[in-house]
Structures are given as structure tokens and as C-alpha cells.
UniProtKB/TrEMBL annotation:
<dbReference type="InterPro" id="IPR043702">
    <property type="entry name" value="Lipid_II_synth_GatD"/>
</dbReference>
<dbReference type="InterPro" id="IPR033949">
    <property type="entry name" value="CobQ_GATase1"/>
</dbReference>
<comment type="function">
    <text>The lipid II isoglutaminyl synthase complex catalyzes the formation of alpha-D-isoglutamine in the cell wall lipid II stem peptide. The GatD subunit catalyzes the hydrolysis of glutamine to glutamate and ammonia. The resulting ammonia molecule is channeled to the active site of MurT.</text>
</comment>
<keyword id="KW-0436">Ligase</keyword>
<keyword id="KW-0573">Peptidoglycan synthesis</keyword>
<feature type="binding site">
    <location>
        <position position="130"/>
    </location>
    <ligand>
        <name>substrate</name>
    </ligand>
</feature>
<dbReference type="GO" id="GO:0071555">
    <property type="term" value="P:cell wall organization"/>
</dbReference>
<keyword id="KW-0961">Cell wall biogenesis/degradation</keyword>
<keyword id="KW-0133">Cell shape</keyword>
<keyword id="KW-0378">Hydrolase</keyword>
<dbReference type="GO" id="GO:0009252">
    <property type="term" value="P:peptidoglycan biosynthetic process"/>
</dbReference>
<protein>
    <recommendedName>
        <fullName>Lipid II isoglutaminyl synthase (glutamine-hydrolyzing) subunit GatD</fullName>
        <ecNumber>6.3.5.13</ecNumber>
        <ecNumber>3.5.1.2</ecNumber>
    </recommendedName>
</protein>
<dbReference type="GO" id="GO:0004359">
    <property type="term" value="F:glutaminase activity"/>
</dbReference>
<comment type="pathway">
    <text>Cell wall biogenesis; peptidoglycan biosynthesis.</text>
</comment>
<dbReference type="GO" id="GO:0008360">
    <property type="term" value="P:regulation of cell shape"/>
</dbReference>
<dbReference type="GO" id="GO:0009236">
    <property type="term" value="P:cobalamin biosynthetic process"/>
</dbReference>
<dbReference type="InterPro" id="IPR011698">
    <property type="entry name" value="GATase_3"/>
</dbReference>
Amino acid sequence: MTDTSSALRIVWIYPDLLSTYGDQGNALVLKRRAELRGIRTEMVHVLSSDPVPTQGDVYLLGGGEDRPQILAAQRLRADGGLKRAAEAGAAVFAVCAGYQIIGESFGDDADNPLPGVGILDIRSGRGETRAVGEIVADIAPELGGGRITGFENHQGRTHLGPSARPLSTTVAGIGNDGQTEGAYQGQVLGTYLHGPALPRNPALADMLISWRVGQIAPLEPSWGERLHEERLAAALNS
Ligand code: GLN
């Protein structure tokens, strides 16, 4: 990364292992919504063979199949960069396999617990059924409230430890356990929402940007807000 003084540095972790259901759209929407406010951005794609830079502002992880998920967790733990960055205050937005990976532990394909990166106080194991379909949830009031939607496809079920708080309360779908969806701890946030999550929920993208740069001006409602409304209606009527 070049200029580290003023740009919003977006770090997209392991596109070669963790990028199912268009999760890369999260990075693109973050960049776009920052730039529409005149905030300069830098985007770094970190392959699983590369070291994770520690000077990023927002780190993004996507979903993945069981085996790539295990490999990604091993490499991130060995590398240590993501953990150092999160401990230094960077924001993290992790989806599904990425969400499980940043926790304390997650179940492999036979539900043996494997260690995660350990920056979010959650533990994930395998559920009896696969959670597949549209999901709707209400964001925790302390994060500003509002409704989020996404698509979930996971076997994992996630339990929150005392240091993590639920991102939202599940309205339709499963999320963590049928009661809550996602978790956050400081500026480390994880969710089961694909879709991708940030194009479908522009308010969530704006929250991440404001965590790094402070208060930001609202944007005129556009395609993102229309998609949000359309997906909400579809999910609640399905
Ligand atoms: N392999 C994980 C599970 O099934 C995550 C799946 C995903 O990222 N969509 O729970």
C-alpha cells in the first residue's frame, strides 16, 4: 500500500479461497460508497499465498466451502497479520465461513473443533440441518437499528461468548441459531449474510465506513436502497 495517511484502505482477504455468492461485492460497494463522499480509497487483494498487511482500515472476508475454510483459517493463524490489525483497531467484516474463521473455533466437515483467528468471541459447530434461503434480521439498537437481508447457506451454528454481542435479531431464516444473526466485538463484525451483504444493505456499508472515518453525509437513495427494499419484500413474502 502506498499512501497510508488519508485513504480508506480496504483489504480483501483470500479471494482465492473465500469468495462464494459474490462476496467480493462487499469490497466494491465499500469503495464506491466511500468515494461518493469524496473519501479516497485503496483496495488490496490478499491471496492466500501472500502476507496480510497490518495497515488496512477495513478487512473483508467472504464465505467458502468447508475445506478452503480450513486452509484459510490455518494460513491466517500462521500469518498473524489479521489478528494484529484487528487488535490495533481495524474494522473487520466477515461473512459465513469468514465469520466462523475469525471466531475462537469452528467445526470441520466432521464437526471436530478447529481453532479460529480468535478476534471475535464466538464458537461455531455444525447444526443438524443446513440453513439455506433468504434471511431477514433486525440490527441491534446500539448499532443504529434497521433491517438487514441476505442469503444464507451454511451448516454451521454459532454461539456467542460474553465478549461478543449479536449483530441482529433473526426475523426470518436461521443466522446463528434461529434467534440471533451475526456478532460484533468492537469493530470486528461477522454475519451469515451473503447476497452480497453490503450491496443489499447499504446502511451496513456506511456503518463500516463511519467506524473508520467518523460521521459521513447520507447519500441520495439509489439502486442499493431499491435492491434492499425489493429483497426485504421478497424474503418476507416467500
Ligand atoms: N462451510 C461453512 C458452513 O457450511 C460456511 C459456508 C459458507 O461460507 N457459505 O457452515
